[in-house]
Amino acid sequence: MYEDVKQLDSKDYFKDGEQVYIHIGDEREENVGVMHKHNFIEIAYVISGSAHHFMDNINYEVRKGDLVIVNYGVPHAFVPIKDTEEDFSTYDLLFTTDFFEITSIDSYDFSALASSYLFYSLFADGEPLNHSLNLIRSGAKDFGELFRKIYDEYIGRQSGFMNMIRAYLIQIITQIFREIDHKTDVTSTNEQKSVVNKAIDYMKQNYNTPINLDNLVADIFLSKDYFRQLFKTTTGMSVTDFIQRTRIEEACKLLATTNRSVFDIAGNCGFMDVKFFYKTFKKITGKTPSEFRKEKEGEVLDHDNNR
Questions:
Q1: What is the mean pLDDT of the chain?
Q2: How far apart are CA 30 and CA 64, in angstroms?
Q3: Each residue of 57-69: pLDDT tens digit?
Q4: CA Rg, the chain, in Å?
Q5: What's this model's pTM, rounded to 2 decimal places?
Q6: pLDDT tens digits for 244-260?
Q7: Residue-wise DSSP of the chain
């Protein structure tokens, strides 16, 4: 149905120094009916009317009271259904996970709450499941009231308005949490393992290049702090330790099977500092690279002599 996907950028919406933006959908009609994606999270609350929501090969109807959650980089489009009593209109709330990390309310890990539970598919029974786009079909009035308050604060921009918006957004996410509280612990554990496994696959495939944690977490919809915590809980080691161990394992393979220099192997395995490579190698294997290579060469000779 759509050949081109329009890319929306946060800088076209967020004011300087802000990580949140809200508008009523019909205020920016240039994106209505246009397949697009964006580098921020979108939560859309349907104020009135109904529309077809397209996402890849999925097409379903949304109506007044529905809440739709769209992840980073997911192509989607709302196409209003015209033969209805009310025109289609939404509150579109856009934000990044950094919006939670800058909060001064340190006693609550709201970024972890958002990262954990916005992952779940919330389609009604029988609807297709997808972890990038979620739907709550509750018609809960609480959501609409919270979106209205956020919109009023954003437009009014009175003193402390950003803290008020953050507080209301926390309420929305907490309400989402309550809506999906019936999810079992087993499902949650499987979701978390899937996220960590995806990150592990990425690190193993890119061990020989600089691994940027920002890029790593962007595709899996997690804040950096929450991802670090989840990774440590699941694997028993930190992200940094896992990356270094993966690199050293690859270095061991090259030392044992090639005649390449230690300097060359270090660079090939993602170590820009040879001294740091030696230090890390000794810490993980208990040997220097030269000692490891000699040991492997001795094992090969012993094997050949015993044949």
A1: 78
A2: 21
A3: 677 788 888 888 8
A4: 25
A5: 0.53
A6: 999 999 999 999 999 99
A7: --S--EEE-GGGTSPTT--EEEEEGGGSGGGTT--EEESSEEEEEEEESEEEEEETTEEEEEETT-EEEE-TT--BEEEE--SSSS--EEEEEEE-THHHHT-S-TT--HHHHHHHHTTS--PPTTSPP-SSEEEE----HHHHHHHHHHHHHHHH--TTHHHHHHHHHHHHHHHHHHHTTTS-HHHHHHHHHHHHHHHHHHHHHSTTS---HHHHHHTTT--HHHHHHHHHHHHSS-HHHHHHHHHHHHHHHHHHH----HHHHHHHTT-S-HHHHHHHHHHHHSS-HHHHHHHHHHHHHHHHHT-
Query: How far apart are the C-alpha atoms of 243 and 206, rounded to whole Å?
Result: 10
